[in-house]
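Entry for flavin-adenine dinucleotide complex. Fields follow.
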Amino acid sequence: MANTTTPHITIVGAGLGGLTLARILQVNGIGVTLYEADAARNARPSQGGTLDLHPESGQWAMHQARLEREFLAIARPEGQSFRLLTKDGDVLRDEVAGEEEMDRPEVDRSALRDVLMDSVDPDSIVWGKHLKQVRPLEDGRHELHFSDGSTAQCDTLVGADGAWSHVRPLLTDATPSYTGVSFIELGIPDTDHAHPEISAFVGYGTLYVFADDKGIMPQRNGDGRIRIYVAFRCDEDWLTTASGIPFDQPAQAREAIRGYFADWAPQLQELILRSDDVILPRPIYMLPIGLTWQPTPGVTLLGDAAHLMSPFAGEGANLAMRDAAELALAIVAADGDFTTATAAYEKALFPRSTELAQESADNLDLSVSPDGSRQFDALMRRYEAAGQ
Ligand SMILES: Cc1cc2nc3c(=O)[nH]c(=O)nc-3n(C[C@H](O)[C@H](O)[C@H](O)COP(=O)(O)OP(=O)(O)OC[C@H]3O[C@@H](n4cnc5c(N)ncnc54)[C@H](O)[C@@H]3O)c2cc1C
């Protein structure tokens, strides 16, 4: 319920979206409580790979969060370098980004999360609070029920709790569906020293290879690790059933995965064989494109909770941060009147996320296809011709 004198915003989820919202509200003097499922700040061993932050979204949000200097300290402009190969190893594109190119610099997700986490009042984050359910109360407030049996009540609630949001059911029945594509995450540590030839092959940024309804996408991370996503167009449970890949036996799993790429260039097969024992199946999900909901007093969503999409547009984290910044600024502009703020925020949110969710789905179809690398190259040519 709107409270124009002492607004206090409850956020569920301390991912990039929830932290950005908390930070911008706090720098504007608005109180926040952030409930996070993880038991502690460093409870999760890995926060994921590298992201490029876009000027109109991720970078803009860091500006609104007054964290530009901190962002520049962790940005890796050379990480924008990009190579596109055919499965035979023929180079379709080889773009090397210079140190001065700050259009879309790469940043390690863990470093970005640390910057945001350090900027938020630690007392406003409540760790180990896995939200199980939200109950609307008769007075318009909400009651949060956590897995540890505890409860909390709030006037205003923002679901920033990602793909499988437990706040979302207050607003819509929509749930994520499988995209038809699954990734396996692999990685090669300390590549410069351990495998200089692989390091040179991948380059300073990302390498993409798509063919035969499959893909191999290595990306250099700031810590010297090359993280590799291997993509398959397949049924939702194929990786863990019919594929025959024994994920609990790393040596055999590497060999089984390589077997699916037996007629691809030897350097691409080497990427799989040289990876370490972190071998994780990751089916890719999305929410319906164009998802909206009726304005509902006291509650809204941001980031993946609002518009989960496949990573093929490279927008998910950027959008989560932009949503967060727009919502925070709307709350400030409305002097804490949450209903007015969410109406303005959602009006812009829906068309923005619909457009990018469509782009992401189109890019997935085009890339994980029989002739993906050449399709991808043609798409980039069309963008270039249009001056984008
Ligand atoms: C393989 C892959 C590669 C990607 N690459 C890119 C990329 O290059 N660029 C890009 O912009 N995006 C990328 N994305 C998308 C990006 O990761 C997400 O869009 C982004 O993390 C969304 O941020 P968020 O804050 O909305 O949610 P999340 O990052 O998922 O954060 C949600 C937070 O809520 C917490 N939480 C979850 N459930 C509960 C609960 N019930 N109770 C309490 N807390 C809860 C979680 O622990 C987490 O801290 C990629 C995604 C994948 C899968």
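NOTE: The longest strand covers residues 177-188.
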